[in-house]
TrEMBL record:
It comes from the Bacteria. This is DUF4139 domain-containing protein. Keywords: Coiled coil, Signal. NCBIfam families: mucoidy inhibitor MuiA family protein (TIGR02231). It holds the Pfam family DUF4139. Residues 1-19 form the signal peptide.
């Protein structure tokens, strides 16, 4: 048995000596889910006689960290708190209210099933009586010999047998329907028995909270669990006419804590209490010289996060709201789900609708002919929702049709956001190197000079004009002896595009059925005693 004690939660006054031990179940009433982990709130109704008592609350998942437990009372004074695993201490001889209620439910279910079974037996008896009458009539030995009396007797027997047969068939049909109606009553007995067994024989992988209490009222227990979390998913619908992306957000909720969450008040939080709580450190860099064959100098070891702060990660407070509205706690966003939620241990991956947003975006066609002969729809803008967008899978829609799937990265509020929405089949791009010599496509060579010519042809075969962005590259040099000059026609709109040296981007409008050509001429020269690599 493991018992871990915490400091007394109420140190102002000591509780009187222990009178007896009572047991009361806790009900999970609220859960705050983080992307990884969850804060679980239990409430325990304490009805105790006068004096102090040792309260046992069973059902905590194995491995519960007592450092994350927070216990408060409404009408209940609380002393020292501990977690117990293994053999639980003996309780007083009286059964808990939960066990009594479970026994009553089982007895009621059994009685209801017995009444239905008795009704079926009565119906079966009617059917058997009808069959017995048929047997009797068939075996009756009549002494009647007169023809007319014999005919009358035969007709009477026939009528009676037919009537008894009809009664037997009707009774059998009624019995079948009645037996079919037994299934819910049998299932009710099964569930009631399982509920009682769960209380009388708790799972061995459970832990029990023990607290010294005095008074009657409500005990609220908050704990943190790791095996739970939520992940967003997105439906992103491109609307080119209004220059926006309509974003519908969903969340997938999961938990494998070892217990079912039934009818809980659910809050989703973007906080990450299990993650890093402080920035990394920057260490001095000592430059030194040494012999070429000497071993490298040792690298200073980074001080671990645990060594820097032995305290547990701070718990984020649950944000409870009566409305399904976004809430802010500093930089943390929380969402309160408006209705109660059921989430079973390890078997459910619940998908809930979160909200809808509209993101104003610039929509254009982008082509990178070095790698792909066609253009793609691209929406570019900023995250104007005022909140962080967590990473998650996204379904992409354009013109009302599903065009692809992607994975949205983490995007901070106000940060740049670029989304692709599939190819535009009617915009084709062709990149070629028209000058050739000695089988080397695209350049004319001298001993210390090379000339490269690239032509890019962009065709719009659709019936709509598109703003275009074409991206390509030219060589660049970081050596003084390697000289590179480039001429672009038309001139590039951006050089060193996206902070990448030698990458050029052109922006222009491409009308329906229009073709445009981009040309670059690059000359590389170097000393004759060097080789271009």
């Amino acid at each position: 048995m493991r018992i871990t004690l915490t400091a007394a939660l109420m140190a102002a006054t000591a509780l009187p000596a222990l009178a007896d031990t009572i047991e009361a179940p806790g009900k999970i009433t609220a859960v705050t889910l983080f992307p990884q982990g969850a804060q679980v709130v239990r409430q325990v109704e304490v009805k105790a006689p006068e004096g102090s008592h040792d309260l046992l609350v069973p059902g905590f998942p194995e491995g519960t960290d007592i450092s994350t437990l927070r216990v408060s009372g409404d009408g209940v004074q609380i002393g020292a708190v501990s977690l117990i695993s293994g053999r639980a201490p003996a309780t007083s001889g009286t059964e808990s209210a939960a066990v009594k209620a479970a026994r009553d439910r089982l007895a009621s279910a059994k009685e209801a099933l017995a009444e239905k079974e008795d009704a079926v037996a009565v119906i079966r008896a009617k059917a058997q009586a009808a069959r017995d009458q048929i047997t009797y009539l068939k075996n009756t030995d009549s002494q009647v010999t007169a023809p007319e009396q014999l005919r009358a007797l035969a007709q009477m027997v026939e009528d009676q047998i037919l009537s008894a047969t009809e009664r037997a068939i009707a009774a059998e049909a009624e019995a079948r329907r009645a037996e079919a109606a037994l299934d819910p009553a049998k299932e009710a007995v099964k569930q009631a028995r399982a509920a009682l067994d769960a209380l009388l024989n708790p799972a061995k992988d459970r832990e029990m909270l023990s607290a010294k209490v005095q008074g009657s009222g409500t005990l609220t227990i908050t704990s943190y669990v790791n095996n739970a979390g939520w992940q967003p998913s997105y439906d992103l619908r491109l609307d080119r006419d209004k220059g926006a992306v309509d974003m519908e957000r969903f969340v997938s909720v999961h938990q494998a804590t070892g217990e079912d969450w039934r009818n809980v008040d659910l809050t989703l939080s973007t906080a990450r209490p299990g993650g890093r709580a402080e920035p990394g450190e920057v260490y001095p860099r000592l430059a030194h010289i040494g012999d070429p064959d000497a071993p490298p100098a040792p690298v200073p070891m980074k001080r671990s996060l645990a060594a820097s702060d032995g305290a547990a990660a701070p718990m984020a407070e649950a944000a409870i709201s009566d409305r399904a509205d976004l809430q802010m706690q500093g930089e943390t966003v929380t969402y309160h789900y408006p209705s109660a939620v059921d989430l079973r241990d390890g078997v459910d991956d619940l998908r809930l609708s979160l909200d809808s947003k509209t993101l104003p975006m610039e929509v254009f066609a982008e082509a990178a002919p070095l790698t792909d002969p066609q253009a793609y729809r691209v929406a570019e803008g900023k995250n104007g929702t005022g909140e962080i967008l967590l990473p998650g899978p996204a379904n992409l829609y354009a013109d009302g049709a599903l065009v692809g799937q992607s994975h949205l990265p983490m995007v901070a509020a106000g940060d740049d956001l670029t989304l692709g929405f599939g190819p535009i089949e009617g915009i084709r791009v062709d990149r070629r190197m028209p000058d050739t010599m000695e089988g080397d496509s695209g350049f004319i060579s001298k001993s210390n000079e090379r000339r490269e010519v690239v032509e890019i042809e962009v065709k719009n075969l659709t019936d709509k004009g598109w703003p275009m962005r074409v991206i390509d590259r030219v060589p660049y040099s970081e050596q003084e002896d390697l000289k590179i000059t480039t001429k672009a026609t038309p001139p590039a709109s951006e050089t060193d595009y996206d902070h990448r040296r030698g990458v050029l981007a052109w922006r222009f409008d491409l009308g329906a059925d229009e073709t445009k050509t981009i040309r670059t001429e690059t000359t590389l020269s170097w000393p004759t005693d060097k080789v271009l690599r």
